[in-house]
């Protein structure tokens, strides 16, 4: 069906492309603006025809865009080409955005579930038959403004939320008991139907021909013992269920009667109906936010002719009578994902299942691309399920019509899907059907167990973003224990009492007052506000703990990593499959799905071996290949070239895999480490037990001989200068015997031998003594400064101050001539007044003082 629709859509797209190409070709033949258009437009007939055509095209574009939910801004008749282009581009952008949105929705749905998309938009999505009113409503939704649509949807959801608010918990309204203690779970089964063996600790009351046994509840019944252990283990699948049969088509929902079971009389009638049929389908709706252990809110049961919805709240203690049809080995029960449903039936009602067929297990055996109930109904029944109420609050009463429809669809198509899956399993391999029943038997035998409180359970439940110290660890442990106690007492889930992120915030910050506690818990939970004093006491006790660093034990780290699916610090569950050291090439193991086919019918041969033809070993091991010609495929009429095969095998033999390279490298590394250990051991034996000479600052400097590393200084490559060799030859024989100088300054640069300050002084001196004449190509004799400096370098004669005449310095200097002014005093006084006047003028003119001369 889907392939036919896809083919039809492809043909429509191809036809649309051809039509568009024809339109472009025809439009190119029309008169263009700036050429002959003005001439043709001068004729009234042509002008009228063009206006009529423009109006018709505008109406056609508006109609097309409106049909797909896009409102186009249509230009007026006679608008410019640029305005038309702008409007068309805007419409194309809106269409592309709508297509992208729908594509993202379908892409997301492909990973999870199938979404309802109106058929008039995609022309390919499978939808249920809608009435004309539903189609018109959908047309209005997709054609209207998106803001109006979102506002309308928001109002509808708000009204739905107001209708589904639970003002009082069903546990209190209907007096439903809840055993949240730490004691082991005790089975609620009071009447055991279709029993085979009497168990220890059971008081037998009645035993008739039908195998019905009754007993009083015994205290020895614990959660470790399954009441139907013997019956499930000795169960044999009826022959009718292992043979091919008729695939009975389901009835439409409109023609299938629905019965609401909420009284004891209706429940007894339902029990009689189920005892009279050969198979029926079951599903449960569960709630666990406002209950510690969880609460079954609805039971959906469907037969071939009728649908039933069981409201368990009013008849909570009487639902146990359904154990008779559920435990009957001759009646088939069809579930989808029954691993939790079976445990919930045991916990709340004492109902146990025998003879189960789980469609989820069958889909995994057939290796379907997806395993959801929505995909199952779509593939076999061609129906799209609306899963928006999957996480709804099913405690609300009365149930809305949409929720009732959702609950019916969960079981209405399961029996038809069972028939289809059975035929596929038998067609593929008759043994697969037996394997499905074998895995379903394991699901039925699982007993319900209460959750056990672990004081360090937060290590596996919460992912930390920081390392805990002793105070934070004490606070987190105490809050975790307090949360569990309150949840058990009030029959609430721990997450409802105090969410994990708030729990972690309190342990991290350790608030000092009530305001700090409220700041860490926003929005404030009811039980946190009610027990603020207990939380404040825990915070104060945590602050009194000695501050230390907390190190996790190896066992705690391993447990936390196993629960999170992490094998080590840098590997998660997905990457561990890729880095697995186990070779699955010889067994039937699907590395992508992580499944191993196990044959439970044969003892001692659990894992099924692959055939030689399907195994990779048949290709890698050349010894198993008897005929070389089977290794290559050639065209008809051509001979097989065995030389190519031999050459290929030789290349394969010479090829070294990365693992073999790693093995060789590790062996070489071990060999080198062993050589180093032997060398260290030899040196230790040579040195013996001689005491090592230790020096201190009290010893003479002569006794502390400097030692240098020959590898770093390259002593062996040190070469002495020729002058040093001549001096060494002239020295006495005693001096020659001395060790040659180890340190050679010529081998090092100035940066390595001198400090920063010394290097700076050296650069300054070099800069002062630089000979510019040499750089400019001039001779030093032509430079007067150089000549002057050369004269200055002459030796200065010593002056004898004792023989000098000092009388000239004792006379006062006096000269009556008017021009005599040795210190230029007249000039200074004269210029001082001029300078002051110029400064005043400049300050008045510019507002600033001018200090220039």
UniProtKB/TrEMBL annotation:
GO terms for biological process: exonucleolytic trimming to generate mature 3'-end of 5.8S rRNA from tricistronic rRNA transcript (SSU-rRNA, 5.8S rRNA, LSU-rRNA); histone mRNA catabolic process; nuclear polyadenylation-dependent antisense transcript catabolic process; nuclear polyadenylation-dependent CUT catabolic process; nuclear polyadenylation-dependent rRNA catabolic process; nuclear polyadenylation-dependent snoRNA catabolic process; nuclear polyadenylation-dependent snRNA catabolic process; poly(A)-dependent snoRNA 3'-end processing. It is found in: Nucleus. It comes from the Eukaryota. SUPFAM superfamilies: HRDC-like, Ribonuclease H-like. Keywords: Exonuclease, Exosome, Hydrolase, Nuclease, Nucleus, rRNA processing. One of its GO terms (molecular function) is 3'-5'-RNA exonuclease activity. Residues 734-754, 783-796, 811-824 have a biased composition (Basic and acidic residues). Residues 469-549 form the HRDC domain. Its main location: nucleus. Residues 719-853 are annotated as: Disordered. Residues 825-838 have a biased composition (Basic residues). CDD domains: Rrp6p_like_exo. One of its GO terms (cellular component) is nuclear exosome (RNase complex). Belongs to the exosome component 10/RRP6 family. This is Exosome complex component 10 homolog. It comes from Caenorhabditis tropicalis. The lineage of its organism: Eukaryota, Metazoa, Ecdysozoa, Nematoda, Chromadorea.
């Amino acid at each position: 069906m889907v392939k036919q629709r896809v083919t039809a859509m492809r043909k429509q797209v191809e036809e649309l492309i051809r039509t568009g190409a024809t339109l472009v070709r025809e439009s190119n033949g029309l008169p263009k603006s700036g050429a002959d258009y003005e001439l043709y437009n001068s004729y009234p007939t042509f002008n009228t025809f063009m206006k009529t055509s423009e109006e018709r095209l505008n109406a056609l574009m508006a109609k097309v865009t409106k049909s797909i939910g896009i409102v186009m801004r249509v230009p007026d008749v006679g608008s410019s080409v640029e305005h038309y282009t702008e409007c068309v581009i805007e419409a194309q952008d809106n269409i592309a955005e709508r297509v992208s949105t729908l594509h993202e929705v379908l892409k997301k749905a492909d990973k999870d579930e199938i979404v309802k998309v109106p058929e008039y938009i995609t022309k390919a999505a499978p939808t249920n038959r809608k009435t004309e009113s539903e189609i018109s409503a959908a047309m209005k939704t997709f054609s209207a403004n998106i803001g109006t649509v979102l506002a309308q949807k928001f109002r509808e959801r708000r009204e739905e939320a107001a209708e589904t608010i639970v003002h009082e918990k069903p546990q209190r309204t209907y007096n439903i008991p809840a055993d949240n203690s730490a004691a082991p779970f005790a089975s609620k089964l009071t009447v055991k139907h279709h029993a085979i063996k009497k168990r220890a600790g059971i008081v037998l009351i009645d035993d008739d021909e039908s195998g019905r046994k009754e007993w009083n509840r015994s205290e020895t019944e614990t959660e470790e013992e399954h009441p139907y252990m013997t019956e499930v283990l000795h169960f044999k699948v009826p022959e009718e269920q292992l043979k091919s049969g008729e695939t009975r088509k389901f009835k439409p929902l409109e023609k299938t009667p629905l019965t609401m079971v909420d009284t004891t009389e209706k429940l007894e009638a339902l029990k009689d109906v189920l005892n009279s049929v050969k198979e029926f389908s079951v599903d449960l709706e569960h709630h666990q936010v406002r209950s510690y252990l969880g609460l079954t809110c609805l039971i959906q049961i469907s037969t071939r002719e009728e649908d039933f919805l069981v409201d368990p709240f009013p008849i909570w203690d009487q639902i146990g009578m359904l154990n008779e049809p559920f435990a009957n080995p001759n009646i088939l029960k069809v579930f989808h994902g029954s691993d939790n449903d079976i445990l919930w039936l045991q916990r709340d009602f004492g109902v146990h299942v025998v003879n189960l067929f789980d469609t989820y297990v069958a889909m995994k055996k057939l290796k379907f691309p997806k395993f959801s109930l929505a995909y199952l109904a779509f593939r076999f029944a061609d129906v799209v399920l609306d899963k928006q109420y999957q996480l709804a609050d099913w405690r609300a009463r009365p149930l809305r019509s949409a929720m009732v429809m959702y609950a019916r669809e969960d079981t209405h198509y399961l029996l038809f899907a069972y028939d289809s899956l059975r035929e596929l399993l038998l067609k593929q391999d008759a043994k697969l059907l037996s394997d499905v029943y074998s895995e379903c038997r394991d699901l039925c035998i699982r007993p319900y167990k209460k959750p056990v409180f672990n004081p360090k359970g937060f290590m596996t439940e919460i992912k930390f973003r920081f390392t805990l110290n002793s105070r934070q660890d004490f606070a987190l442990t105490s809050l975790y224990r307090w949360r569990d106690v309150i949840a058990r007492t009030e029959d609430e889930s721990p997450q409802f009492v105090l969410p994990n992120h708030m729990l972690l915030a309190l342990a991290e910050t350790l608030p000092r007052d009530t305001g700090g506690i409220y700041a860490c818990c926003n929005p404030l939970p009811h039980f946190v506000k009610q027990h603020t004093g207990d939380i404040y006491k825990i915070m104060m006790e945590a602050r009194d703990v000695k501050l230390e660093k907390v190190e996790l034990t190896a066992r705690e780290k391993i447990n936390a990593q196993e629960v999170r699916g992490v094998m080590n610090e840098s590997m998660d569950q997905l990457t561990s499959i890729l880095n697995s050291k186990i070779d699955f090439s010889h067994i039937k193991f699907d590395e992508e799905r992580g499944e191993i086919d196990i044959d439970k019918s044969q003892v001692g041969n659990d894992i099924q071996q692959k055939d030689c033809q399907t195994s990779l070993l048949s290709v890698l091991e050349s010894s198993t290949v008897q005929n070389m010609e089977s290794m290559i495929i050639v065209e008809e009429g051509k001979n097989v070239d065995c030389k190519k095969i031999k050459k290929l095998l030789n290349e394969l033999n010479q090829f070294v895999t990365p693992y073999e390279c790693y093995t060789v490298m590790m062996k070489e590394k071990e060999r080198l480490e062993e050589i180093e250990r032997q060398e260290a051991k030899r040196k230790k034996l040579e040195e013996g037990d001689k005491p090592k000479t230790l020096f201190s600052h009290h010893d003479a400097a002569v006794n502390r001989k400097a030692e240098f590393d020959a590898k770093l200084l390259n002593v062996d490559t040190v070469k002495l200068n020729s002058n040093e060799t001549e001096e060494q030859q002239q020295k006495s024989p005693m001096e020659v015997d001395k060790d040659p100088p180890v340190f050679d300054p010529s081998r090092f640069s100035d940066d390595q031998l001198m400090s920063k300050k010394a290097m700076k002084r050296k650069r300054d001196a070099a800069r002062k003594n630089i000979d510019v004449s040499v750089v400019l190509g001039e001779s030093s004799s032509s430079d007067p400064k150089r000549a002057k400096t050369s004269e200055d370098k002459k030796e200065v004669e010593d002056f004898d101050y004792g023989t000098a005449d000092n009388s000239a310095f004792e006379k006062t200097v006096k000269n009556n001539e008017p021009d005599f002014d040795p210190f230029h005093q007249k000039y200074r006084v004269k210029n001082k007044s001029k300078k002051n006047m110029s400064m005043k003028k400049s300050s008045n003119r510019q507002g600033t003082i001018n200090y220039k001369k």
